[in-house]
Amino acid sequence: MIRKGVKIAPAKGKLGVLIPGMGAVATTFIAGVEAIRKGLARPIGSLTQMGTIRLGKRTDNRVPKIGDFVPLAGLNDLTFGGWDIFPDNGYEIAAKAGVLDRSLLDAVRGELETLRPMKAVFNRRYVKKLDGPNVKRGRNKWELAQQVQDDIRQFQKRTGVDRTVMIWCGSTEIFMKPAAVHSSLPLFEKGLKKNDPGIPSSMVYAYAALSMGIPFANGAPNLTIDIEALRQLARKNDVPICGKDFKTGQTLMKTILAPGFKARMLGLNGWFSTNILGNRDGEVLDDPESFKTKEESKLGVLEHILQPSVYPELYGKIHHKVRINYYPPRGDNKEGWDNIDIFGWLGYPMQIKVDFLCRDSILAAPIVLDLVLFLDLAQRAGMRGIQEWLSFYFKSPMCAPELYPEHDLFIQLMKLKNTLRHLRGEDLITHLGLEYYD
């Protein structure tokens, strides 16, 4: 049977990548793309650049690279811009972040020095541990949103980009729950004009982007686009959105290990997680209100994977603790330490210890690249609203309000690849495999 794929507009011309929050993650991503363009490094960790996808039966031997299978923008077509509360250029920011070796930074210094952050929308009410001089002024949040849109138009005109994507790489804001101002687009727009405290800086950026038909991804655990008002705006303007919170270190390990325990019906008594982190993110999360936002993002993973209501004997009484410790000497080289208390046959206890000495921005950079390219693909394929197939990249994936999020990394990957197969008219793969034994 021949299936018909989805009509996808070609990836012609330049793709503008706009980033609120030009810190360690953003500059590691941009410097990496520039280095890869020059043949100085490889895009390790990027599914769009290195991953393959199986098509048809295993015996067909059709396993193209994802980048050859779906029409993605090329790395040479990416053009960067962004906002930050500090006025340093991209090279200065990357050097201070200390993620990449100076020799690599010097090889792309010219490209990074041309990257100068625009003045940011920022209010210390929402990120209490940071402050900087490169900040916009306006009578209200509506006016600030208009200023962001002016920035976008000027960027598009200056660079000549044909399409634009926005991805939040800024800091974690204080914990917020959906409120009345978030319940509809008209109420949200009134809230912008009235400076409603329920609208943090990240929502101003998201509103500005979605109003202009620009896809938006949320890389932090902030509420941001996970509200009805902005979901309505995304659907109204036929814009894809996704989030939230890049899945990098410790939570990545949880979404790999927890499905394995559940698959083997091994019980879990407790999971204690602590992080040592010294970069700007660590400083921000030293504030209890910002930590609460991150904690909620991290804690939900095990519950959704292990389903304690379905398996009460195995997972009904889990003691799950998460801690984040700001330790400046560690810099961007985060350490995630886990103590896992499991039990097996006849209830006999066992322990697993994980010490993940990871590099936060090194793990996040390829996620940013993949999300930029996949969101642009979704836009050209006419996909709008929440892109649940991109849950693979997030700690706290967005989904329809009536659904629970899927956290199992392997189910997420199957969903992502089947979405790509669907777009190109290929058969979806279930891994049933009975046809080989008929």
Itemize the secondary structure elements and their pairings.
Blueprint: E1 15-20, H1 24-37, H2 47-50, H3 66-69, E2 78-84, H4 90-97, H5 102-107, H6 109-113, E3 118-119, H7 141-159, E4 163-168, H8 185-193, H9 201-211, E5 216-218, H10 228-236, E6 240-243, H11 250-263, E7 267-277, H12 280-284, H13 288-306, H14 312-315, E8 319-326, E9 335-343, E10 349-357, H15 360-380, E11 385-386, H16 409-423
Parallel strand pairs: 1-2, 1-4, 2-3, 4-5, 5-6, 6-11, 7-8
Antiparallel strand pairs: 7-9, 9-10
Helix pairs in contact: 1-4, 1-15, 7-8, 7-9, 8-10, 11-13
Distance between the termini: 19 Å
CATH topology grouping of the largest domain: Rossmann fold
Write down the Rg: 22 Å
Say which CATH homologous superfamily of the largest domain is assigned: NAD(P)-binding Rossmann-like Domain
Our count of domains comes out at: 2
Shape: globular
- Order of strands, widest sheet: 3-2-1-4-5-6-11
State the oligomer: single chain
User: Structural class, from secondary structure content?
Assistant: alpha/beta
User: Which CATH class of the largest domain applies here?
Assistant: Alpha Beta
Order of helices and strands: EHHHEHHHEHEHHEHEHEHHHEEEHEH
The amount of helix comes to 25-40%
Q: Helix segment count?
A: 16
Strand content: 15-25%
Largest sheet: 7 strands, parallel
Runs with pLDDT <50, length 5+?
A: none
Mean pLDDT: 94
Number of strands: 11
CATH architecture of the largest domain: 3-Layer(aba) Sandwich
Could you explain how this protein is built, in words?
By secondary structure, the protein is of the alpha/beta class. It has two domains: 15-246 and 362-423, NAD(P)-binding Rossmann-like Domain (Rossmann fold, 3-Layer(aba) Sandwich), CATH 3.40.50.720; 250-357, Dihydrodipicolinate Reductase, domain 2, CATH 3.30.360.10. It is built from 16 helices and eleven strands. It has helices at residues 24-37, 47-50, 66-69, 90-97, 102-107, 109-113, 141-159, 185-193, 201-211, 228-236, 250-263, 280-284, 288-306, 312-315, 360-380, 409-423, and strands at residues 15-20, 78-84, 118-119, 163-168, 216-218, 240-243, 267-277, 319-326, 335-343, 349-357, 385-386. Strands 3-2-1-4-5-6-11 form a seven-stranded parallel sheet, sandwiched between helices. A four-stranded mixed sheet has the order 8-7-9-10. The radius of gyration is 22 Å and the shape is globular. The mean pLDDT is 94.
